[in-house]
Amino acid sequence: MASLSAVNINKGQVGQSTIGTSDAISGMIIGAIAPVSFALDTPISVLTMKEVENLGITQKFDDDNKINVYRHILEFYRNAGEGTELHLMLVDKATSMSEMCEVKAKTLLASAKGKVKQIAIAVNLPSGANITMLDGIPKNVHDAISKAQLLADWGFKFNMPLQVFLEGYAFGGNVTTALNLRDIPGLKAPKVSVFIGQDFNYAKTRDEAARKFADVGTLLGVCSKARVNQDVGNNELFNLTDEASKVWIEPGLSSHEINADVFEELQVLENKGYLFGIEYTGIAGVRINNDHTCTPIIVDANNSTNEHTIAYGRVHDKAVRSLRTAYLPSVKTDWPVDPKTGKLTPGVVVALEDIGDKVFGDMIKRGEISYGKTIVGKDSDLLVEKTLQISYKIVPKGNIDEINGTINLKTKS
Description:
By secondary structure, this protein is α/β, with parallel strands linked by helices. It contains ten helices and 15 strands.
């Protein structure tokens, strides 16, 4: 009997999302005072500025206490967008940035169950605090770079890789003596970035030490909004300026100098790997200058490169997280081996490589990488060692840092 409906079309089942919606989840630790609603050292999670304000963190909270807490969170949400998951912890103002990285951040990351992909560390100095300088930046920031890298290493060990952004407050102003973040003696910190930019017009409304803050919440918000492969300085996508609310109209440095007054020195800061806001002739608004991390650029004899940009680090982290999730169901499963050699059969090798290759295929579809390949070790011993040996190759997306060209006037075409 034929169906009188003639054509039957049923709704199919929707599988797991391949859109990287969790890439935006961020963390923030700020030296401050406790609001009335929660105690210091208490990890909390928020999704909107309304939730933040309901906790008693408002512009008045900042103004009354001469601090920048609301400011950092507001800048995060202005750029990341409402509804973005933010894990927040306020700690005592006397807490060093190193201690925030060594102790407080681990508590926050564990509380967030490893979901945080990027974290900002910010300070509010006690009134009258003396700032000890080292290599042109506060010793507090200088010492925290290595601790921030150790935090990232710890996160990677426990399957929660992340980027760390340090507030480069109170920049010394001397670019010649400033620490070269791309060549720190005895240290490579590819997961760490230092932001020394500030919205100058907002900064000049602040009192005392709060005036020499750096808008690290801005960087965190832009990174949260960006896809993992995108440079946080993307000129097309990430304009920091909001003319209506008069935000980021005049970019400056945390030395509390406007860019225009140190214009010729900005290239040196760029070369040394600092992040800040910059204006380009020919395009309105302010952008982040680049996506540097605190490491030299390395390319080895096998054409492998290090995570010398935030984007490279985020792509690598996403691949690691995704591959782990993809292969976890295969742990403790059994596979046939060649009865003569005890090694993997060609069919098993292909099946196991397909798991990783599907991860890379999804990343390619989302435009996050150019190429990815899984290579299963054919001699993996699943009988005694019971260990599957796998290696991976990733070719990231290319990036245009600058364009060099020539132009001439011609009398004929």
